């Protein structure tokens, strides 16, 4: 494969995956700007290792692993405990989809970082338990237990909010 073909293949992957990767980082608790920075860093590293990435058994899982590592690295470097859950770039405050998205982001913000990672990998990026385990470098049983605890916590948050809205 020529260098030109590799660049074209990489560009096609970026064009197809960019929105989902940015959204995944936002669901992990980052602002749009943070998410775009993390995805840009990830894709820069990905391009540098493109031959290895494209030959991987699951290139998407490889990219997801790099994304998670970039997110974790960024969190380690942050000195502030700031957590922005709303999308500041969206001017659609009255939009129902936007309101639902904000509710989801807020609910995810109540989870531990490990639970949030597993929920986003499984339900937003639609990875299998095995793929999520590979991305996180943990056994599938750990994914299952984190997912069970995360979903139980989300159910509690939603039930509490529902009772609060009805009173």
TrEMBL record:
<dbReference type="InterPro" id="IPR036388">
    <property type="entry name" value="WH-like_DNA-bd_sf"/>
</dbReference>
<protein>
    <submittedName>
        <fullName>SigE family RNA polymerase sigma factor</fullName>
    </submittedName>
</protein>
<dbReference type="InterPro" id="IPR013249">
    <property type="entry name" value="RNA_pol_sigma70_r4_t2"/>
</dbReference>
<keyword id="KW-0804">Transcription</keyword>
<dbReference type="InterPro" id="IPR014325">
    <property type="entry name" value="RNA_pol_sigma-E_actinobac"/>
</dbReference>
<dbReference type="InterPro" id="IPR039425">
    <property type="entry name" value="RNA_pol_sigma-70-like"/>
</dbReference>
<dbReference type="InterPro" id="IPR007627">
    <property type="entry name" value="RNA_pol_sigma70_r2"/>
</dbReference>
<dbReference type="GO" id="GO:0016987">
    <property type="term" value="F:sigma factor activity"/>
</dbReference>
<keyword id="KW-0238">DNA-binding</keyword>
<keyword id="KW-0805">Transcription regulation</keyword>
<dbReference type="GO" id="GO:0006352">
    <property type="term" value="P:DNA-templated transcription initiation"/>
</dbReference>
<feature type="domain" description="RNA polymerase sigma-70 region 2">
    <location>
        <begin position="19"/>
        <end position="79"/>
    </location>
</feature>
<dbReference type="GO" id="GO:0003677">
    <property type="term" value="F:DNA binding"/>
</dbReference>
<dbReference type="InterPro" id="IPR014284">
    <property type="entry name" value="RNA_pol_sigma-70_dom"/>
</dbReference>
<dbReference type="Pfam" id="PF04542">
    <property type="entry name" value="Sigma70_r2"/>
</dbReference>
<keyword id="KW-0731">Sigma factor</keyword>
<comment type="similarity">
    <text>Belongs to the sigma-70 factor family. ECF subfamily.</text>
</comment>
<feature type="domain" description="RNA polymerase sigma factor 70 region 4 type 2">
    <location>
        <begin position="102"/>
        <end position="154"/>
    </location>
</feature>
<dbReference type="InterPro" id="IPR013324">
    <property type="entry name" value="RNA_pol_sigma_r3/r4-like"/>
</dbReference>
<dbReference type="Pfam" id="PF08281">
    <property type="entry name" value="Sigma70_r4_2"/>
</dbReference>
<dbReference type="InterPro" id="IPR013325">
    <property type="entry name" value="RNA_pol_sigma_r2"/>
</dbReference>
């Amino acid at each position: 494969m020529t260098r030109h073909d590799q660049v074209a293949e990489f560009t096609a992957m970026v064009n197809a995956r960019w929105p989902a990767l940015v959204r995944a980082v936002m669901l992990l608790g980052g602002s749009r700007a943070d998410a775009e920075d993390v995805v840009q860093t990830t894709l820069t590293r990905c391009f540098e290792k493109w031959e290895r990435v494209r030959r991987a058994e699951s290139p998407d899982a490889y990219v997801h692993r790099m994304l998670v590592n970039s997110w974790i690295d960024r969190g380690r470097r942050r000195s502030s405990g700031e957590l922005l859950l709303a999308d500041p770039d969206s001017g659609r405050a009255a939009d129902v989809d936007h309101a639902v998205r904000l509710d989801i982001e807020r609910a995810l913000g109540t989870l531990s970082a490990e639970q949030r990672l597993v929920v986003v990998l499984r339900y937003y990026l639609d990875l299998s338990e095995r793929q999520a385990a590979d991305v996180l470098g943990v056994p599938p049983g750990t994914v299952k237990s984190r997912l069970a605890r995360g979903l139980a916590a989300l159910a509690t948050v939603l039930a509490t909010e529902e009772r609060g809205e009805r009173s």
